[in-house]
Amino acid sequence: MTFEVRVDTASPVPPYEQIRAQLSELIDQGRLVAGDRLPPVRQLAADLGLAVGTVGRAYRELEAAGKVSSRRGGGTRVTAEAAPRPPAELARLAADYVEAARRLGTADRDLIAAVQRALAPQ
Amino acid sequence: MTFEVRVDTASPVPPYEQIRAQLSELIDQGRLVAGDRLPPVRQLAADLGLAVGTVGRAYRELEAAGKVSSRRGGGTRVTAEAAPRPPAELARLAADYVEAARRLGTADRDLIAAVQRALAPQ
DNA sequence: GAATTTGTATCAAACACATGATACAAATTC
DNA sequence: GAATTTGTATCATGTGTTTGATACAAATTC
């Protein structure tokens, strides 16, 4: 159950989101399973050269998504509800969608906008 | 060829992007066709209670996308290259993708991230 | 060709957001 | 139960982005 999180400070996507996304993917991939413990916020923050609040935010968002459970004094652990998914499946779906949409002549930006519209139909 | 553009100031997506997206969709839908003229930036800006530069930015981005052509003193018109697409098609593709991804238990955010990853493979 | 119309460039101000530092709260450890 | 560990709340700071105001440039109109 050893893993690594990396943060690219040059990226436009903020560190807390990079951390959240990477941990989320580790859980989805089943490389972190129910009961596994995430490193303490202070440890991960020190490793990455970030503030504790930054890692804390990533943990909080993962908790809101139901993937981990945090308790003060306790720690942060992967929940039983966080079932692993076949990793290639989502990527394949996304690739199929992108290919089909591009064939329609859709610009990348509008392609993502269409997904967002499908997510939250007014 | 009458149309309407609305801006929701409460939305987190900035006005210039709302304008761009709506006009882009009007063009994709074929409700604005090649040669059709967009309103002058000052007129649209006045209608929406925005600054000319805000509308101007939307026009500039549409031009960069090849959907319109702007000329000082002339105006801004839909290009011949901006071919209309079947409107339901993209929405249907997006809806299918969202449904399939959700069936995998994917969170909305990760669902969009997967598309972005498919767009720009590292 | 002068006046007008129309898009663009510039730049300071406003705004939104993430971060870092610090203090606080709750559970565990001994 | 005291000390330690761990997550959270707060808030000022910094950074990037959007906006608004204004001036400028280019085409059209008369």
TrEMBL record, chains A, B:
One GO MF term: DNA binding
Which superkingdom?
Bacteria
Q: What is this protein called?
A: GntR family transcriptional regulator
Residues forming the HTH gntR-type domain are 13-81
The record's listing under SUPFAM superfamilies reads:
Winged helix' DNA-binding domain
Its keywords, alphabetically, are: DNA-binding, Pyridoxal phosphate, Transcription, Transcription regulation
* SMART domains, sorted: HTH_GNTR (SM00345)
Which CDD domains does this entry report, sorted A to Z? WHTH_GntR
User: Which organism does this record belong to?
Assistant: Glycomyces luteolus
